[in-house]
Design goal:
Layout lengths: L13 H31 L10 H29 L1 H7 L1 H12 L4 H29 L5 H22 L5 H19 L6 H6 L3 H12 L5 H16 L3 H7 L1 H19 L2 H6 L1 H5 L8 H15 L2 H9 L1 H28 L14 H16 L4 H8 L6 H29 L2 H22 L8 H10 L24 H13 L6 E3 L9 E2 L8 E2 L4 E2 L7 E8 L3 E3 L6 E7 L3 E5 H11 L4 H6 L2 H9 L1 H4 L1 H11 L10 E3 L25
Parallel strand pairs: 1-6, 8-9
Antiparallel strand pairs: 2-5, 3-4, 5-7
Helix pairs in contact: 1-2, 1-5, 1-6, 1-7, 2-3, 2-5, 2-20, 3-5, 4-5, 4-7, 5-6, 5-20, 6-15, 11-12, 12-20, 12-21, 12-22, 15-18, 16-17, 17-18, 17-21, 20-21, 21-23, 24-28
Length: about 675
Amino acid sequence: MSLVGQGRGRGQYRNEYIAALAGTSSLVASVACAGWSSPALPVLRGPNTPIPVTPDEGSWIVSLLSIGAIFGPIICGLFVDRYGRRPVLLFSAIPLVAGWLFVVFAESVGMLYTARLLHGIGYGLAYSVTPIYLGEISSDAVRGSTGVLVTVMAKLAFLFEYSVGPYVGFRALAWISLSLPAGFFVLFFWMPETPYYLLARGNKKAAAESLRWLRRSSSIDEELSRMEKLVQDSKQKGNPLRQLLLTSTNKKSLVIILLLSLGMQLTGINAILGYSQTIFSRLALPLTAAELSIVLALVQLGSVMLPTFLVDRTGRRPLLLASTAGSLLGLATCAVYFTLDETTTDILSPEQGAPHGWIPFGGVLLFIISFAIGLATVPFAILGEVFPKHIKAAANSVFAVITSAVVFSVVKLFQVISDGSGTYVSFWIFTGCTAVTGVLIYFIIPETKGQSFERIQEMMMQRGKANTSVREGDGNMQSLIRTPHLIAPTIAVLILLLLIPTSSEVEIDCNSLRMGQYICPDPTLRQIDPKTQQLRGCTQENKARVWCIAVDGIVCSETKNASFTREMPCKWTNGYHFDTALLLSVFLGMFGADRFYLGYPALGLLKFCTLGFMFLGQLVDVILIATQVVGPADGSAYIIPYYGPVITVVRSDNWTYRLPQDNW
């Protein structure tokens, strides 16, 4: 036993777990932003939405998180070695809090876009810094279990949003979610900086204090010396990003990691989680979409525990292949169901609680479990094995940037394709991409179980040689790298699957549509302003631009989906209520109160002095106001409920067409 372990009994790893839990609480705070869209989108698209959004705007709300996440690893790379792991991780709470405040006070879609970008920055930053912090504070005995916390905390965040979101208001959910980054900041503020960073900055005394607290032992000299040696070796090896991109073996390892990254995201996992309630709302089941999402989150949380016990027993390749096969089966099940549901009318029963309604939900659960046992976790294990220690941070940043870009593309296209062509098309694309990923894994990904770093580097060197095979006595390696020429065509297939036209829809300028080809305003959106009882944005020219929706088969060039904007007539109001004017005319008309209210002070004064022309003028004004002949003096219209007793005067002019009627 080493000196580090001497004298450490029960609870010896307590402080390491405390620091790990406090650090990974940043993932609960950040991943909650990803889970938020599932309960929030149905509210934003519903009849009582606080902010009306179109399907296209909804897809931007979901996908902009990934755009913001691209900047997280960049910020991490610039500042994590300059200011430290702890301050940068604490900083990740700031954009998260700011984003939730934007959601709380949002009055427009633009504010939601800003919130999602801020959420993405905090999300990417937390995901980049947390693994570094955990790796540098954990001793060898607990590094595996603290690493699992990354995935477990992320799934807890999804469970939290899925469980709370459907049962509280839109803004209440934002306030509740805001408490997560605030709580993380308070908890993590008291945690120490990592010993590795402090040694790299030349502060050996502070590094010793940090390590002593983490290990709960005073016998740290040997471990501190090893850390110091590793830090010195890393400094001598130069720029890690340059070595990652220019060294032959590292470039080949990077190809493997990028392949796994693409394979993970092209299964559609983030789109399915982000739109889970929207997808489940199409199923005729006795459980609500919100309840089904909670079940999904619970299954997902339980599934991420499995790789902990399997990855070092069965190996990386078997887990990846089994995971891909199960994911393929689950996605294909959903694709077949939604194809029958959306393209036929006599095969599936639309009755609530029909037994076949459980089929797609079972397919999604199979996909989630299968994805969790391999594709969700094994790539991170391989990431830690195929790169030298001093460039793992650079490789992790590149991995995170590429992943965020792919996630954005997948999540954005999911809504566009589902609205334009059908949900089944999206699932068939995910199924095809998963199948291609399985083929690539079989031919390209090596088995790294039980291999030393030197042996793995030797295998990377052999990847450039066609038809190479590893001797049977060298371990479990197979002739996996014998067909590198397959990489280019298979990646091309992945891209083509996303670009192949999926329907025969026509793209036109929807402002030229004729009556019967569209509905305006779109009845699914809340476009009536409750304050004015007119279309939102009604101008003094009595026009408002509103969202409309075209019939099936038409794609608008303006938005690339079925929605478009069109000017519609409205009545500009300026705060004058019809019921107030009428009540004043009936009860106080003899004193001219109605005319004063409507902006006619001269007539109001005249009525006041003559008791409403001896009540005759009062009677006339009651009739004129009741028939809405007399309105506010500024030319605005009365505020009357949109579907209330509004009188519209139709006058004949040179442009009026009289329809002849025999029985006039």
